[in-house]
Amino acid sequence: MTIQFGRAHFLGLDAAPEGGIKTYRAQVAEGTRRDGPLRRLQYLIKANYAFNYIWWFKTRSNDPARIARLGRLEKRLLQPLASTRAMTERAAEFANSDFHFASAMLDTALVSRFAEDLYKPQRYNDPYRSNFEHVGSPEQSDSPFLYMEPQALLENANFLEICASQAMIDFCREVLGPRAALSWAWSWISQPGHMPYQNQKWHRDVVEPLNFLRIFVPLQAIGSREDGPTELIPGTSQMREFYAMRRFSDQELEQTKVAKGAGVVFAEPGDVYFVNTFALHRGTPPGNRRAILTLLVSLSPSHRTPSIRKLRLREVPERLRPMIRANRSFFRHLIR
Ligand SMILES: O=C(O)CCC(=O)C(=O)O
Q1: In this structure, which residue's CA is closest to atom 9 in ligand 1?
Q2: Residues 6+ apart with CB under 8 A from 127
Q3: Is residue 205 lining ligand 1, measured as CB closer than 6 Å?
Q4: Is 204 touching ligand 1 by the criterion CB < 6 Å?
Q5: What is the pLDDT of residue 186?
Q6: What burial class does residue 211 get, using C-beta atoms within 10 Å of its C-beta: 0-12 exposed, 13-18 middle, 19+ buried?
Q7: DSSP 191
Q8: What is the Å distance from ligand 1's center to 217 Cα?
Q9: Ligand 1 atom closest to Cα of 230?
């Protein structure tokens, strides 16, 4: 249930923030979330705060100059000391180009273990189609996107080990500040043989928190257009055109692509790239199956974050606990 008062929305216990995410009630029914009056109240406060925080600002206007002003204010309020610190060189470069590439940041064996987990027969969904579900192996489906179920992903040991990469966390903190936290993640297989589908059309990620970035972890080598690389027009996050909440065509963006130098990102397993996806970007429809993991890191929670069933530290594999203990704030939405 979602009730609207002007621009504000009230989300009930049976509202799903995105396709494929289980509602509070569904999580309680399947036994993954504990229920009780206090828990309901806590959930409602968090879910309504997170949802309205984004929709209030961003439905009013998505103008990048306005978003940047509000973003600076958010940084100052949430981490007053950090906002006076000088930016590192690579963070300043990221602020200009919306992009940072880190070669061999992750252990390739870890990346391939996680890729195996994504390719194993399981229940897949598609955040763009709330009623879609595929149970089985990827080969048994011709759907354009097969996403790992959010909670299965957020609890996956190999996923958590990837997220615990200190080098990755350090870069997020350089860009966003010490309160940077993992607030959502997606991992999916893009299947060949489809016209550009959903995020394969040019867009900005407009329904995200004010200060955020996304981390892309390719789960296989991406060496040609056939492999389905991410395509980005760098330096467009601040550009005061093309910020309507819609997809854009190649023709509309032709001049901008030439002026700013659009490019595709080729990568090997173990490489990681960080993107301010408020900049114009898209996936490329692949000629071969392509698997990717992407993390949302932000100062404020995303509208999806309150749906996470938090793990206790003792539920996490022992080998990961020291890294998580050392980065409690980064994991605050996932692990208590
Ligand atoms: O698939 C990709 O490489 C890009 C994905 C994307 O554009 C998105 O998730 O917003």
Answers
A1: 199
A2: 18, 19, 20, 21, 147, 186
A3: yes
A4: no
A5: 98
A6: buried
A7: P
A8: 11
A9: 3
Query: For 119-145, what is the mean pLDDT?
Result: 96
311 Cα–ligand 1 center, Å: 27
Q: Domain for residue 259, yes or no?
A: yes
Q: Is 18 in the pocket of ligand 1 (CB under 6 A)?
A: no
What digits encode the pLDDT tens for the residues 212-231?
A: 999 999 999 999 999 999 99
44 located within any domain? no
| Tally of domains within the chain | 1
Sheet holding 134-136: strands in order across? Answer: 99-102, 272-275, 212-218, 290-298, 181-190, 145-148, 122-125, 134-136
Q: Is residue 277 within 6 Å of ligand 1 at its C-beta?
A: yes
The upper half-sphere exposure of residue 44, i.e. CA atoms within 13 Å in the direction of its Cβ, equals 16
pTM for the model:
0.96
Structural tokens at position 238: 């601040």
Ligand 1 neighbourhood includes 158 CB (under 6 angstroms): no
Contact 173, 20 (CB under 8 A): no
> Could you tell me if the CB of 282 is within 6 A of ligand 1?
yes
Give the domain CATH number at 219.
2.60.120.620
- CB of 199 sitting under 6 A from ligand 1: yes
Query: pLDDT for 137-186, tens place per residue?
Result: 999 999 999 999 999 999 999 999 999 999 999 999 999 999 999 999 99
